[in-house]
Records
---
Amino acid sequence: MKFQLHHFSLLWICFFCSKEKDRLNLWSYFLSPFSPQHPSCLFFQYNTQLGPPYHILVDTNFINFSIKAKLDLVQSMMDCLYAKCIPCITDCVMAEIEKLGQKYRVALRIAKDPRFDRLPCTHKGTYADDCLVQRVTQHKCYIVATVDRDLKRRIRKIPGVPIMYLSNHRYNIERMPDDYGAPRF
């Protein structure tokens, strides 16, 4: 653990405290900010809530890049994970696709596919990246499908959330256990 200079001085004071109660208070001060609480579904950084059928949160740019690569979303997801996949799309992502206009009408038609689960949003604002990060933080049962570097960087900080991305005209997945059928290249 990385302590700042004043933490070391407080640590020495903690060892030389005469009262046991003061010593325990100082130790709780040290341990509380440095011991993050992880959900019980995580086991050695792998999420035990993930399993077939996989629920995959789809981002706007993932749909657009899939269209450019001429890939069928649902079939390509199943080819990647070797199991049934249920693509999920939030209201914020749908609003983002609708805002893109007539140029992205194919992406909008794909997003309105009945095979997609529509997830309602209860928060204010329509920024899709914040919506996806918030949903994945609350519920660890999703895989996030995105090509956006900033969103990938934010999601990598959340333990136990795999990321699906597009490379070489096929879908790949990172941070997924071998037991769950993740292909290794």
---
Amino acid sequence: MRMVNTDFERVLKHFDEDGDGKISPWELRKKLGMMGGELGLKEVELLMEELDCDGDGFLSLEDLVKVMEAAGEEEKLRDLGEAFEMYNDCEMLGFITPKSLQMMLSRLGESKSIHQCTAMIHHFDLNGDGLLNFHEFALMMNQ
């Protein structure tokens, strides 16, 4: 689920104490400290350098949007990785076989034959090895 700009604006306003529309290193350090994330001045400078897209020394709304969207993508990849491991965990081979797909679907209450599972895998099997690697699984899950 994507955050809309009003959500990003609310985050910006929370950190932007002087109301200038940007988060200074001082504001970031102070607010993170209040939230229990105590950072030293050098750590804040490095963080600002990493997150500040236009190099002005402040975090703007656009910088926050980029950071939050990137975090969302990382979370989505982590979730896909966990789902991949659920299908993979019975054999731990690093890919999904028709048998492991059938077993996981069965655990989820969906009964499929080995032939149906083979056909499902075949549809997303880009390299033709009869198995789903993580990349192929991610494509399947995004359909």
---
Amino acid sequence: MMRIMVALLLAIVVMNMASLGHALPDDQSPAAVEKWFTQYSNAVPKLTKLHFYLHNIVSKNPPASVAIARADSTATSPTKFGLVTVLDGPLADQPNSPEVIGYAQGLFTLSSQEELSTLMTINFVFTAGEFKGSTLSILGRNVVVAPVREFPIVGGTGDFRMARGIGTATTNYVNSTTGDDILDIHFVFYRFVLPGADSDSEHKDEL
């Protein structure tokens, strides 16, 4: 009886976590990761393309991003130098879609005294679709007013272990009054597929 109650409790916890929109990953235990690395030399690099929209809507409650730290001089700096913001913004496959496919979670810091530019340290957590439970990590520079911004993809987890590639972002929508914005993001990168794990002979995904 006790075992049944524990199993039911665990099932409820899992469902509640899933309902929050943050998916549980596949097996990422130390043993599973070590086994993956023992086969890594046989893995096939697979060109993968992802396209989605990041909704940084700060006028809602709770906001998608909030300032957590700033230098004393930030208020008078034309580039807001020294402002640090934490982000948990939903990802969608369309700019006006209510269906969430993941979250961008991390930090961006206004890091230039000459132009409006941020240092971004962000994990893209996918909670729906083929890559549910996997993440991609970026670390790079974002010149906010540039028409196109490019940044490196430096790694990932789950299906995206050892991922390397490039992301680009353009502004799809911005509201200068509220501070809301939506970014149109394209990722092009290589992930590594173990033999027998994927049947696509062209080694190319597109979402």
---
Amino acid sequence: MRRLIQRPASVCPNNLKSSITFLLTTMLLVYVLYSFKIIFNKDQSVNVDISSKQSLDTSTNNNSSFAPPPPSCTNDERFDRLPGADTTIKHIVFGIAGSADLWDDRKEYIKQWWKPGETRGVVWLESNVTTSEKEGLPETRISGNTSDFAYTNPEGRRAALRLSRVVSETFRIGMNGVRWFVMGDDDTVFIVENVVRVLSKYDHNQFYYIGGISESHIQNIHFSYAMAFGGGGFAISYPLAKELEKIQDKCIQRYPGLYGSDDRIQACMAELGVPLTRELGFHQFDIYGNLLGLLGSHPVAPLVTLHHLDVIDPIFPYMGRVDSIRNLLESARYDSASLIQQSVCYDQRRFWSISVSWGYAVQITRGIISPRELERPARTFLNWYKGADLTAYTFNSRNPIRKPCQKPYVFYMSTTRYDRYANQVMGIYQPYNESHPVCHWKTTSPETIDSVVVLKTPDKNRWKKSPRRDCCRIIPARRRGSLKIWVKNCDEGEYSGL
């Protein structure tokens, strides 16, 4: 039987066009839905990853949480977010090693820098002393008994044992919110604002042992270049103080032959494996005599401490020691960051070299002396070891004068005032009457100057920038016999040119 093969029905053009349109629309819709699904799943995947990371962080450390990266910021903002950048005076506790026998005299130094209601700390003594709340002094406590500890150094005193435990005993008090323990002697003067500035550079959550060495090369050899000298003061971060407190009593018993408290601290730091972080503003002052050379050419670093005030000459030679400290800290009230910082400029017309140590002294010298030479301390002082020559210091130094006619004329800070409308500090420096040789140079003598006026804009953020000396400039003075100097941050292209 033959099969009948049917022909396909003819397709209408209108129906074909509708079918094609429907097919394309359907494909487009499927594509769009599929794309949305991919995007949704991708976002969901990111959210899952973040949630997983949050869970992992939480399980690892219950006190931590995931945070998105910070937005872009300026240099100042980045500094503010450093680990220690928000460190303030309230985060610091001072442990002061004192002597009851010397208390009546030494407490006068403490009064000058202590800030009642702001600073926190304890003076540790061997016996009770009488104090009054009106004096504005820190709390006093009696050190723990160390009579069972061996001490065999023939040249030292057993008091070194109790003083070496000042940080640990201060730690045991259990004060709240402590980031740093700062130790010093009862004749150590702290520039508190600069203590805060220096410690703000470091992460207080890490192990830090911060301080300075002696000015005497022989002292550092005898003790250690790795040791922070206690009189100059040093700082220990909270977690390091916590570890030190655990081991210290056993540690110091292993070193009965050491001389002082600071080398016992360093011996324990060596056992903990923590090196000294050196800061140039901590000053032991193992010297005798006049500090003009050192303070007149201070390193480009914040002034943090002054020590051995009973040994050195008064900072201002026409005042007593305590009054000198009070006078110096008067300038610190207006610009503590710039205290003692050196500036160098030249009076080309009169052929003078001028060195300004802000808040302290101005020195005018006949002739042109390079900044390279002026930034080296003049040896106005004597070494801790009699007979030691200039090679016995830990820094470069220079002769006070090269020629008799170049003996500097010194003007010491007399008064400081602040003009809040101009935001400017004005310091008046008076000449120190001392003999000068007869000089037949044709240049004008600085003895014609009876006062120096130094103008300066406060700069509390100077140590957030790279270290650099300020620039100074001679400006016209209305009164004859007065020298007027403007000290400021150097402008672009400005320098201490000859």
